[in-house]
Amino acid sequence: MRWLSPLDPRRRHQDVRTDRFDSVGSWFLESSEFREWRSGEGGADKAVLFCYGNPGVGKTFLRQVTGPREEAGAITDGWQY
Amino acid sequence: MGGNISSLVIDSLCDEPSEEDIAVAALYCDFRDHQEQTTANIIGAILKQLVARDEVLGHMQTAFQKSKRELGGRGLRLPDMVRMLKRAIATLPHVFMCIDALDECLPKNLLELLESLKDILQEWPRTRIFVTGRPHVEAEIVRYFTTGVIVPISPSTHEITGYLERKLEMDTMRDAMSDTLRADILKIIPERIPEM
């Protein structure tokens, strides 16, 4: 199906998962944010889940930072932090 | 972004047994591949993962051949791709899209991509979209989607140390490593990363 797109995300996915450090990041799959997104419970208001972090080796690891950002949640209407 | 979190999410969606029938499409943006990663190709790549299992394909191929004839071989443009993607989504029970490292898109492509995703979501609000990126793309995402959930990600010292220890164990040039250097690596890097 190259006529649709020359990109091959499935192959890239295989490369990424081969290099993955499996023991980190599982907390994210257990987080209420992910579970709610996955189950669709939040409806259309929670259709988009955005994870952000800075570049560097830290990107390979995942740990949720809670605290100040949660309080900042009210700044943007409609978005939950 | 290394893709770690995105690949975890994709595997979890694909591997975990689910009561409902779901379709998953993934895309890893890559700054090294700007030439091929046009917005039309990104949407096309999402589309081909979704239609791989679907009869819509025949219709699309006809549309593609028609557009090639009419446009002198230029192939499908972004609006055509978005229209076809919406048509594919309509045939599927539940669609999940995961797009890694939005910040690695060219700025113009990022805006086109977000516009396209917004358009798709407006028509098919049940679609779930997972995106990752550096902090600066947050402003663009919030601008395009009026609602959503944001999760900041950062490493814990414990996770960094564990990762470094494993990398050091896999070092192929061990002779170059001394106990002092090893101790310095394990001490200094975890301290610095939160500042990066």
Descriptive notes:
The complex is a heterodimer of chains A (81) and B (196). With 81 residues, chain A is an alpha+beta fold. Chain A has one domain. Chain A has helices at residues 9-19, 26-30, 32-39, 68-71; strands spanning 48-52, 79-80. The longest helix of chain A has 11 residues, at 9-19. Chain A is extended. The N and C termini of chain A lie far apart (39 Å). Mean pLDDT of chain A is 74; it is low at 57-75. By secondary structure, chain B is mainly alpha-helical. Chain B has 2 domains: 4-144, Rossmann fold; 157-195. Helix content of chain B is 54%, strand content 12%. Chain B has 8 helices and 4 strands, in the order αβαααβαβαβαα. In chain B, strands 1-2-3 form a 3-stranded parallel sheet, with helices on both faces. In chain B, strand 2 (95-100), helix 5 (107-123) and strand 3 (128-133) form a beta-alpha-beta unit. Chain B is elongated. The mean pLDDT of chain B is 85. The chains are: A alpha+beta (81), B mainly alpha (196). Strand 1 of chain A pairs parallel with strand 4 of chain B, so a sheet runs across the interface.
Oligomer: heterodimer
Q: Which structural class matches the secondary elements of chain B?
A: mainly alpha
**What's the helical proportion of residues of chain B?**
40-55%
State the share of residues found in helices of chain A, binned by percent.
Answer: 25-40%
Number of strands of chain B: 4
The rounded Rg of chain B comes to: 21 Å
Decide which structural class fits the backbone of chain A: alpha+beta
Q: Stretches of chain A where pLDDT falls below 50 for ≥5 residues?
A: 57-75
Molecular shape of chain A: extended
Task: Name the CATH architecture of the largest domain in chain B.
Answer: 3-Layer(aba) Sandwich
> Pair with the most extensive interface?
A-B, 59 and 77 residues
* % residues in beta strands of chain B: 5-15%
Report the mean per-residue pLDDT of chain B as an integer. 85
* Cα gyration radius of chain A (Å): 16 Å
